[in-house]
Design brief:
- By secondary structure, the chain is an alpha+beta fold.
- Helix content is 26%, strand content 28%.
- It has helices spanning 49-66, 84-89, 91-102, and strands spanning 3-6, 20-23, 28-35, 74-81, 108-113, 124-132.
- Strands 3-6-4-5 form a 4-stranded mixed β-sheet.
Length: 138
C-alpha cells in the first residue's frame, strides 16, 4: 500500500521517521501487537540492545508478511525502550539494523521510555500498524 507522506514545515525536518502517513481508502488495516526479542519459547534471545531491536522488528515484519504485506506497508510504529540513554548510545547500530529490514521506508513513529516490559530481560518492544492492499475478495 502506498502512503502519502505529510511533514509540515512547522514541525521541522524529521530524521528517521515521518510525521504523517496517509493511506488510500480501501486498504486492510493490520494492528501488530507489541513484539520483544523473544524466541518461539518466549525467551529473550540476547542482552544486546541492537540485537534485541533487530529481533523485535523481525517479529513485527513476520506478522506483516503473514498477512500478505511487506515492510513498506507499515504506516505507524511505536518503540518502547527501558533505557533511553542506551538507545541513544546505540543509534548507529540501530540505524543499520533498521535499514536492513525497512530500507528507506520511514513510518510515523514514537519512542517511549518505560520502566519495564512484560518479558523478563526485554529492553525493547515494538508495536505497529500496517495498511495492506485489498484482497481480491474485497
Amino acid at each position: 500500500m502506498a502512503f502519502e507522506v505529510f511533514n509540515p514545515g512547522e514541525l521541522g525536518t524529521p530524521s528517521g521517521w515521518n510525521n504523517g502517513m496517509l493511506a488510500e481508502t480501501g486498504g486492510r488495516v493490520l494492528f501488530i501487537a507489541g513484539q520483544t526479542a523473544r524466541d518461539p519459547e518466549g525467551r529473550i534471545v540476547s542482552d544486546d540492545f541492537v540485537e534485541q531491536f533487530g529481533r523485535a522488528l523481525d517479529l513485527v515484519l513476520e506478522v506483516v508478511r503473514a498477512a500478505g504485506g511487506a515492510a513498506e506497508d507499515v504506516g505507524r510504529m511505536t518503540i518502547f525502550v527501558t533505557d533511553i540513554e542506551e538507545y541513544r548510545a546505540s543509534l548507529r547500530g540501530l540505524g543499520s539494523a533498521y535499514r536492513e529490514r525497512m530500507g528507506r521506508h520511514f513510518p510515523a513513529m514514537a519512542l517511549l521510555e518505560v520502566n519495564r516490559l512484560v518479558d523478563d530481560g526485554a529492553k525493547i518492544e515494538i508495536e505497529a500498524t500496517a495498511v495492506l492492499s485489498p484482497t481480491e475478495q474485497d
